[in-house]
Amino acid sequence: MRQGNLDRPCAGSRTSTAKSYRAEGGPPGFYRSGELLELWIVVLSELPKTAETRLLRLLGPQQMRQQVQDEIAALPEGDPARRPWLELLDEMVYLVRSQILACQDLALLDRWLVKAATATSVSEVLVAAA
Asked: Which has the higher per-residue pLDDT, 46 or 120?
């Protein structure tokens, strides 16, 4: 296993660092901590843009999520991989819609509405205005 150059602050401390090692035999973007912790780290920005990494990349920032959505939209109609992805995206939309409809806090709804005027994504509205 070769050592990566991912000296990053540990959660909860700005001064301590943890050594990370590229996962041997794994795709780019996968690292693991030292021998004792057995902690795995995925650096989304380093993942290859392949079908195998789509789900992880959907957890990334808005631009990355949009790229994945564009990849899914570009799949041919007859591609058997297309339908599960479209169902997953539909479920995500349903969950966000349900969260908005279930909200009884008028102040929060008002913040969401104000933020929606300038936001570029639904998550930007819900997270920033919460």
From this structure: 46
Q: Across the chain, what does the average pLDDT equal?
A: 78
What's the whole-model pTM score? 0.61
Q: How remote is the C-alpha of 78 from its chain's centroid?
A: 27
- Burial class of residue 48 (count of CB atoms within 10 Å of its CB; 0-12, 13-18, 19+): exposed
Domain range summary for the chain, segments of one domain joined by +: 1-47
Q: How far apart are the first and last CA of the chain?
A: 43
What is the pLDDT averaged over residues 91-95? 85
Reading phi first (left if > 0) and then psi (alpha if -120 to 50, else beta), residue 33 is in beta
